[in-house]
Structures are given as C-alpha cells and as structure tokens.
Amino acid sequence: MKRLMSGVAALAMMAAIAPATQADVNVGDKMPEMKVGQLYNNEFNVDVSDLSGHIVVVEFWATWCGPCRAQIPHLNEMNKKYKEKGVLFLSISNEPESLVAPFVKQQNMQYLVASDSKMDDVFGVRAIPHAVLFNPEGVAEWKGHPAELDAQLEKAVGKYPNARPLGSGPDYNEKLFASIEASLLKGDNPGAISLLRRIDRKSLDAREGHRARYDGIVNRITPMAEADFSRAMSNVKNKQYADALATLTRVANEYRGLPIAEKAAAELKRLDGDPEVLKAKRNDAIERQADNMLRRAKAQAEDGDKVMAYLRLKNIVEKYPGTAAAAEAKTLLTAYEADEELMKKVNDR
Hints:
CATH architecture of the largest domain: 3-Layer(aba) Sandwich
CATH topology of the largest domain: Glutaredoxin
Distance between the termini: 85 Å
Order of helices and strands: HEEEHEHEHEEEHHHHHHHHHHH
Number of strands: 8
CATH superfamily of the largest domain: Glutaredoxin
Largest sheet: 6 strands, mixed
Strand order of the largest sheet: 2-5-4-3-7-8
Number of helices: 15
Strand content: 5-15%
Radius of gyration: 30 Å
C-alpha cells in the first residue's frame, strides 16, 4: 500500500496544477467538438474537426510546465512507434502562437501541436500534463498522465487493428488531389510531385475516379523525367557515365515515389556493379579534386599570392596527371616561369 501511495505521489509531483474548470471529459464520453488555433507539424493536413477512424491521444501542456517538457521525448517516441498503427497525437496549449511556435521547433516536438486553444476548459483539465485517449469512434477510453500511456496504447492498437493511419484513406486523398491539381495549374511541378508522394496508393480504388486521377497526374508530370531517363541511357551507351549517373540520380530523387524514379533507382543499382562505371566514377572524383585545387590556385593568384599559386599548380600537375585541370595548370606554369622575379621568390621560399 505504501508503494502504491508513493507511486501516486510521484505522479502528482510530475503534474503542474492548472485552474479548475466546470466542464469535464470522462471515460465513456464522446470527443467534444475540437476547435483549436494554429496547428504545427500538420504535414498531413489533419482536420481536427474530423478525427474519426484514428486512435486519438489529446494531451494538454504548456511551455512553462516542467513536467510537460519532460514528457516531450516520450511523446516523440510514442508518435514514432504508433503513428503507422493509426494513432494520432494532438498536444494542445492555451498559450499564444508567439510562445508556442518557437518552442515547438526548439524542443523538436514531432507530433501535431496546437496553440491558442480553449479546449482545456472544454475537457475540464485541472492539472497538466494531462492526456485523454479516444478510440476510432471518438469515445474516451482512458485519461491520465501521459507517462502512463504506453500500456494504454498497446491495448488500443491491439483492440483496433484497423485504425486509420495518418495520410491514408479516400478522404485524405481527395484533399491531396485538390492541392496537387492547384500546384499543377500554377506550374509548380516540384510542389505537385512532393504532394503526390503522400498519396495513399493503397486507397486509390476505394473511391471512384481516384485511380484515374492519380494516373492522369503521373502521366502529366513524368514526360520530362522520361526524356531525362532516355538521355541518361544514351549516355550510358556512349560510356558517358558521369553525366548518366548525375541525371539518373536527379530523376530518382526529384520524382521519388513515382514509377520513373523507381526505374531510375533500379538502373543506378545496376550500374553500381559495373566495373567500367566504377572506374569512371573514380576518374570523375579525381577530376573534381583537381578542379577544386585549380580554383584555389587561381583564387590565390587573384589575391596576390602568386608564389603559393605557383606551388599549388605544380602540385596539381604532379598529383593529378592526365586531368583537364593538370593540362590547364601546365599552361599557367609556363607563364609563371617566364617571370624571373616570381621564380626568384619561389626559389627563396
């Protein structure tokens, strides 16, 4: 009994007291209508007025609350562990954006955060940090200190295996399609591609027309990438490996998430095991190193330190023979060596 009481006392010490309010949300209650101010980390365009389908953890906190700050790493870990299992974390502060926005960045809060909210009054929060766990139907199944959440979340994800992860479902895709199409109308292809990566492709067939919209957008975006891919393959055929690798890498990165990017990545993987390509990559690296040294030599000459420039040029010729930089360095050395005063300084060094 003493051990139990000490545990309760420890949790009590971990909480900061907040002003008492009249309303309350208890286990078994439906989630109140959520009205919050500014949202941070909202990469999935979460609409807090419709959280159905998710297991939702609503947590109340404040920047001035030491126990709240202590829970941030724990909440980050749980967010990482459970977000793909349908759990959405929403941490709410009643403080203004001017306080919360820099704090979110400084503390690396990785879950959904809201500021300028009066939801603590609606929930009847009497001490913070305080958390309430709602099931996918929006019914509260637990409330308490977020330090005790682990066991509750394990229980919830086992009980609701079909909870909807963030960034999934036809409604989510519908909102994303609208943003993608708006980006395309503005000519913002990179923005459209970035949004297209977030489409939940598993849900495309769940709503009529979504598969066709997705394919249409992909077909509109990828012609330029296809042309780049074809040019890269011509470069491979002509053994211009450096240009080919650079183009394929750009296609794989810029169009990530699209079939053309997967095609480019597969070709890069194949080329990575080709001895000729490996040799070309080594030669390209040597050319870059020599070119960098040549630029430094030229910069030293422009700064008036021609002695060091001369010595660096000599080093390029000796260390990187056969490179374009070495050939240019030889030409520059010939001009320098015609300067008797400069050569005297070099010899006296």
